[in-house]
Design goal:
By secondary structure, this protein is of the alpha+beta class. Helix content is about 55%, strand content about 15%.
Length: about 400
């Protein structure tokens, strides 16, 4: 068995070195695909994450409150106004069944002493917000610093203007909390001077009288990318009785929806590109197999089995594609080091931050692409030569067409 494999390997190497120009062309093509694939997945993937973070920071598109509640539409980010009346339990239950991203929120006014302890001036009003960490779309995307774990009960998030260090413990209304994070500067009053805790913690701090709903007095809605804003608004009004649906952010919602659809389109085009590579390599090997049909027929006539010939041709393709992929990934790694700072600079100019990727993730991506391209070459060679090997060896030797 081992001598056969050694002979097979020697034959593969001999065939590759005998056709050096063809081997170099195929390796160059695979190297180009590998380099473009690595740079596209890495840089475009990080760009996508940066854009998604930017879209998340746009917050909610609509806010659902009780019909008699007041809403501040002058803020760039929609939030619930402190001390708005709580939503009825049936409305909260009905909202859970809607196919929208619905983030519950409760807001109350804290005593003046709480604001002074956290660094606000005398007479400053400090709002307390209760959020659901698993569904929030308005607060967590604006975290500037945080402890790196999931936000949970017993922790609080400080607005940008409030004083405190990460991990410190503070007293709020006779309850002790650990500072989880601080929000970035936004110029929005709720995010500049607000304190954010979980809904359960806010219920313990300031009982709402409606423990079943934790005193939720607003629902922040993100419109799906495939539904117009007015359609979402009308559906909310039809299925949630006794509420008002407000929001003056139609343009920002359109930006979010259009950007999300664009990112999905880019992902679909990446799949199409991969399939195109497989097709092109298959067509290339169809031509090679047609050119070498007499050689294949002669080897079959001399006693070689179809399986052995498949091993030779598939081995040639795998070696060429593996070598080309390794070459392309090496070039891509060098280009990535030069392109990453440029992309980060451009994103910084528009207020976005390029997402960081660990060396282990990059190495995993490179290994995955290398294995994928090597396998694609082998599969393409197998598909291209299978039809020829089913023919009669004598016809392969004699037939010119």
């Amino acid at each position: 068995m081992i001598p056969e494999l050694v002979s097979l390997a020697r034959l593969v190497v001999h065939n590759l070195t005998r056709r050096r120009l063809r081997s170099a062309v195929l390796m160059g093509a695979v190297a180009l695909v590998a380099a473009l694939g690595f740079l596209s997945v890495d840089l475009l993937g990080r760009l996508e994450l940066s854009l998604l973070q930017g879209f998340e920071r746009l917050g909610a598109d609509l806010v659902v409150v009780r019909a008699d509640a007041q809403v501040n539409l002058t803020q760039a980010l929609l939030t619930v106004e402190p001390d708005a009346p709580p939503l009825p339990p049936e409305v909260v239950a009905a909202a859970e069944r809607l196919p929208f991203i619905s983030a519950p929120q409760r807001a109350v006014r804290a005593p003046e002493s709480v604001g002074m302890e956290l660094g606000l001036g005398h007479g400053s009003s400090l709002p307390l917000y209760g959020i659901d960490p698993t569904r929030d779309t308005t607060v967590l995307p604006w975290l500037e610093d945080h402890r790196g774990i999931d936000f949970q009960d017993g922790q609080l998030i400080l607005g940008h203007r409030l004083r405190g260090r990460l991990g410190d413990r503070v007293r709020v209304l006779d309850h002790t909390f650990q500072i989880y994070g601080r929000l970035a500067a936004t110029g929005i009053p709720s995010h500049e001077s607000g304190v954010f805790v979980t809904l359960a913690d806010l219920e313990a701090l300031v009982p709402s009288g409606t423990p079943d709903t934790l005193g939720i007095n607003g629902l922040l809605i993100q419109a799906p990318p495939d539904q117009p804003m007015e359609q979402v608004r009308f559906r909310l009004l039809a299925q949630l009785p006794g509420v008002t649906v407000v929001g003056g952010r139609t343009l920002l919602a359109m930006v979010r929806q259009g950007g999300t659809l664009t990112l999905r389109l880019l992902a679909a085009l990446s799949v199409v590109l991969l399939l195109s590579v497989l097709l092109l390599i298959s067509l290339y090997y169809v031509g090679i197999a047609a050119e070498r049909r007499q050689e294949l027929g002669l080897l079959l006539s001399l006693g070689a089995t179809p399986l052995q010939l498949v091993g030779v041709l598939v081995g040639e393709a795998a070696v060429l594609c593996a070598g080309g992929a390794a070459l392309g990934l090496g070039v891509a790694a060098a280009l990535q080091a030069a392109l990453q700072p440029l992309l980060a600079l451009r994103l910084g100019e528009v207020g976005l931050q390029l997402q960081e990727v660990s060396a282990a993730q990059l190495a995993g991506l490179a290994l995955l692409l290398w294995l994928l391209l090597s396998a694609l070459g082998a599969v393409a060679a197998l598909l291209a030569t299978a039809a020829w090997l089913r023919r009669d060896p004598l016809l392969l030797v004699q037939n010119d067409g």
